[in-house]
Amino acid sequence: MPPLRRAVLATAATVVAAALFYACRSTTPTTSLAAGDAASRVYVAPGTYDEYYAFLSGGFSGQVSVYGLPSGRLLKVIPVFSQNPETGYGYNEETKDLLTTTYGFVPWDDTHHAELSQTDGVPDGRWLFINGNNTPRIARIDLTRFETDEILQIPNAAGGHASPFTTPDSKYVVSATRFSVPVPNADVSIDSYKQNFKGTLSFITANQPGKMDVAFQILMPGYDYDLGHAGKGPSDGWFFFTSYNTEQANTKLEENASKNDKDFIAAVNYKQAETCVAQGKAKDFPSEYDHNVVDSVSRVAKVERKTSVKMLDPKDCPGVVYYLPTPKSPHGVDVDPTGEYIVAGGKLATVIPVHSFTKLQKAIADKAFEKEIDGIPVIKYEAVMAGEVQKPGLGPLHTEFDGKGYAYTSMFISSEIVKWKLGTWEVVDRIPTYYSIGHLMIPGGDSRKPWGKYVLAMNKITKDRYLPTGPELSQSAQLIDITGDKMKLLLDFPTIGEPHYAQAIPASMIKDKQVKYFSLAQNTNPWVTRSEAEGGIKRSGKRVDIKMIAIRSHFAPDNFEGVRIGDTVYFHVTNIEQDWDIEHGFAVFGNTNAELTLNPGDTRTLKWVPTRVGVYPFYCTDFCSALHQEMQGYIRVSPAGSTVALTANTSERARRQLADAQTGK
Ligand code: K7E
Ligand code: CUA
After folding, report:
1. Cβ(1) to ligand 1 under 6 A?
2. Whether residues 139 and 276 fall in one domain
3. What is the pLDDT of residue 11?
């Protein structure tokens, strides 16, 4: 959250003071930082598993990190929007195209919101979606492989922040523009903001792997659209987005976008939008965007360039959007498990405002509008407001639910989580966090049926919590028990990048569905090498393709000659192991690219442009066996125009190892 981050740095002293102030008023004793039985509550004995998978956004790392809860053990980093030399993601030829956009190859992005797919309003463990914030995109991660499979670029948008929140059936995930821009983007004066800048709300079809697309976009007034959540139960069919900067400032927003007492939640009736689109009321709007998909059979990513979207103007579709006045510069918008309450986090508000879906329906029927903006009726605050949580603390941002009638709101400025009761709006408990909490997460906590049990606080500042590591300290997550009346701190653990949102799901819903290896017989990578005999080297002009296998503990072939300066070499390496977790790696001396990590049964390709004459070793980078250090080979590079013959040999040693393996020695 860059703007708030900046604010933090500017007012660190105030923040700490506020945190202390609130801590003193807290009903939780702060002298004992953790619950007495905390150690046993988070202890996952060697050889046993965690109860939940937690998926944390990596913020400016661009990736997802997977932790076990309650232990806080890091299980994996899933590369998504940033290249990852650890695995070759975004470097190897098979995955590079996942990071292609209409702006070219984008090797980095900023991820904010991890969102599990849902069935009937409950996370189902099929996929994890996550947004790219800077160059707006949405990625789908397959949870049988923990791999990114698909990335869709969002056109006519800038800052894909309110994303990728899902409808209860994952028919759609959404993306909204945090930064309004000219739509279509054009060379105009920035001072013409009020005339020329627009927002868009995008609905992306999401329930078929490999087929994500922009179903339609809704053209909105030029505000900043910040976060969103779908309705559920009675409010199923609606989507809610917060907006700020309804002042439409284009400079010094910290002051100029903080003037209005209330900004808006946009309540979108997306079933109505579907109807209008079906009736031809949306315009075909020329828009270039890329859809990148990993082919499920060849496992090679491909780019498809799209050229148009359906753009719906609310003026042409009455009843599609209403504005709900909401104090003050709201950030999060969260819908409770019953689907009745819509909770906003007004960063600068002194209350937590809650809207009622029932009242919204009545206000629409009664036309209880105060005005209209660009065809969007603005509903009277009193007509839609269900209640306000009084004196919750300072800087409410995000709310999650435990499914037992309570809500938990993160308070950024006063650094705490506040627990309050839906319906009575009374604060019933509070617990300090260290420090400056952003998102918080309860397993299933934005769904129809939260699993409850824990709330995870994800904090921006960790001063005093961990061993110092130079000027920048780790960001921090804190696990808090919510099974009793009082919240209890159980555990601190550091995170990778900056966590914004996270989601968690019972391990039992994912762990037994894991792919253990890829079938070599079904590998349709065009450069697959299924056996030693299929390996070799081939020249086509200045392109040289090398096909080789990796198996414990050799490459074959492993000696190559006949490559010349001016050639581009592609190493196509197939790991022909057919067993779980038997990985190999591949790296070649002097390469300016990365290594390859090879899953069993997988083919990956590394591009190498040799620039100097000589003999270059390559080796396995993953310690795979007792003879891993023997898993090496050489490639000879001769001058341009050399007549050295193009050859690929399998070394004596490799042949011997193979013979030994075959005779079971
Ligand atoms: Cu509040 Cu990007 Cu969801 Cu960060 S955002 S905290
Ligand atoms: Cu293969 Cu080390």
Report:
1. yes
2. yes
3. 41
- Residue 250's pLDDT is 96
Does 20 map to a domain?
no
Examine the domain organization and report whether 298 and 439 are in the same domain.
yes
Q: What is the mean pLDDT of residues 337-366?
A: 96
439 and 397 together in one domain: yes
* Atom of ligand 2 minimally distant from the CA of 553: 1
Residue 188 lies in a domain: yes
**Ligand 2 atom nearest 550 alpha carbon:** 1
Min mean pLDDT across 119-123, 421-425, 532-536 is at 532-536
Q: Which ligand is nearest to the CA of 597?
A: 2
* Ligand 1 touching residue 347 (CB < 6 A): no
Q: In terms of domains, do 478 and 603 share one?
A: no
**Residue whose tokens read 């789908």:** 140
Residue 526 within any structural domain of the chain: no
Q: 657 CA distance to ligand 2 centroid (A)?
A: 14
Over the stretch 401-443, which tens digit does the pLDDT of each residue have?
999 999 999 999 999 999 999 999 999 999 999 999 999 999 9
pLDDT of residue 5: 45
Shared domain for 197 and 320, answered yes or no, is yes
What's the pTM value of the predicted model, to 2 decimals?
0.94
Query: Would residue 476 count as lying in a domain?
Result: yes
Mean predicted lDDT score pLDDT of the chain:
93
Number of domains in the chain: 2
* One domain, residues 455 and 541: no
For the CA of 620, the closest atom of ligand 2 is 2
The reply to whether 137 and 249 lie within a common domain is yes
Phi, psi of 525 (to 5 degrees): -55, 130
Cα of 651 from ligand 2 centre, angstroms: 16
Does the beta carbon of 439 lie inside 6 Å of ligand 1? yes
> Does the CB atom of residue 331 touch ligand 1 within 6 A?
yes
Residues in contact with 330: Cβ distance below 8 Å, sequence separation at least 6, in sequence order: 226, 242, 243, 244, 263, 265, 344, 345, 346, 347, 349, 353
The CATH code of the domain that includes 218 is 2.130.10.10
Residue 275, domain extent: 52-513
- Is the C-beta atom of 397 inside 6 A of ligand 1? yes
Residue 500 Cβ < 6 Å to ligand 1: yes
Mutational pocket test of ligand 1: of 56, 130, 163, 331, the residue with most ligand atoms within 8 Å of the beta carbon = 331
Interior angle at CA 258, CA 439 and CA 23, nearest 5: 45
**pLDDT tens across 128-155, in order?**
999 999 999 999 999 999 999 999 999 9
Cα-to-centroid distance, 629 and ligand 2 (Å): 7
- Atom of ligand 1 minimally distant from the CA of 458: 6
- Residue ending a domain, choose from 453, 479, 513: 513
pLDDT in tens, 282-334: 999 999 999 999 999 999 999 999 999 999 999 999 999 999 999 999 999 99
- Spatial neighbors of 632 by CB under 8 A, at least 6 apart, are 555, 558, 617, 618, 619, 620
Q: What is the CATH number of the domain that holds 602?
A: 2.60.40.420
Quote the pLDDT of residue 661. 61
Q: Which atom of ligand 1 is nearest to the CA of 501?
A: 3
The 8 Å CB, 24+ separation contacts for 280-286 are 281/312, 281/316, 281/317, 282/216, 282/310, 282/311, 282/312, 282/316, 283/310, 283/311, 283/312, 283/313, 284/308, 284/309, 284/310, 284/311, 285/156, 285/184, 285/217, 285/309, 285/310, 285/311, 286/184
